[in-house]
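Late entry, evening session. Most of the bench is empty. Finally got around to the prediction I had been postponing all week. Sequence below, unchanged from the version circulated by S.P.
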Amino acid sequence: MLTLRFRLLIVLLMFGVCGVVVAQDAPAMVATNHVLRGSYIHQGSYKSGLMVPAAMWTKVGNPLMVMCPDISGMCTIQVDSWIQNGNGMSMGNQYRVCFCLDGMRVPDCQVVGSTPSDGSLLIGSASEMVKMVPPGTHMVQTVVWSMNGMSVFHYTSNYRVYKP
């Protein structure tokens, strides 16, 4: 019979100290300190719901103007968005949350989840950023996409401008 101490040693060897399989350590990277230069909060609601047609990017709320200060160097614009949605037209109705910078949708918009088809609502969130934004005033706006259509009811987007 194996002793408790020996069984623990086997578990630690198999799964590592934190309960995960031990992999080779990746070399540490030097992080860049980004200094917050502006924070813009935009939220609102559509009482009857904003209809998002199937497979069409749809603007949520109004565009905002944000400022990348100084004439030297570039900025990073980062956004955290929360979208309450419902009225899904089918099961497995995936949706995406993204944002536009100066009228252009940023790349790599995330699939956030699936809109429920049972009449219930859910909130999905996404966090995205664009680096190397030139100084000046820029327009930002949250957009959503749904595979088979949905409605947006409440939304919040927190836009932040950083200088590296």
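Two things to note before I forget:
The longest helix spans residues 4-15.
The chain has a mean pLDDT of 87.
Will write this up properly tomorrow.
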